[in-house]
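Tokenised fold entry reproduced for absentees:

. . .
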Amino acid sequence: MTMLMKKINLDVSIIIVNYKTPKLLFNCISSILRFTKDLSFEIIVVDNDSKDGSEELIKNNFSKVKYIQSCSNLGFGKANNLGVKNSKGRNILFLNSDTLLINNAIKILSDYLDSKMNVGVCGGNLYDENKNHIHSYSHIIPGIFSELDALFSNYISKVIRKKINQFNITKKPLSVAYICGADMMIKSNLFKNLNGFDNDFFLYFEETEL
């Protein structure tokens, strides 16, 4: 008799790229398990050849985490692409190892993507350790205007939009140019149809290009 293995479908695959951040990674995963409820998910860690005990720390404390060990430092985009290849989620969350969840954000983002046929990517607001607002997205695609705006400390965009350009201070979703890759959820089929992150980007701006 031939046994056919059916691929398990999950709501969300959470992919975290690690490079020599064992304690941050431990805290990040702990916050995911603490706050994420009412959906099926998996956590995939792609390690960029840290060789610092990260793998042992995670495997000893989180037996259900899928740990993928790379033999070299692939960079952010390539490592995330590798994680997606091993994922089973309908939606993919790219999460930096130095982030901590403070609510059930993963379900909020996943539910939003599922309910909006014309939305492919979404993300949440980001704070620093003192709960100050930090760069979470931008209304402006990189170019001459964005360079001028940055030169004047985002004054131009603030005047035009009369609000912070990198943090959503409203209680409504905003349409933006790009979302910070530190906390970005995308529909899995869309990511795969786009062939993932461009492998030419080692670090920074791969999410903007996507």
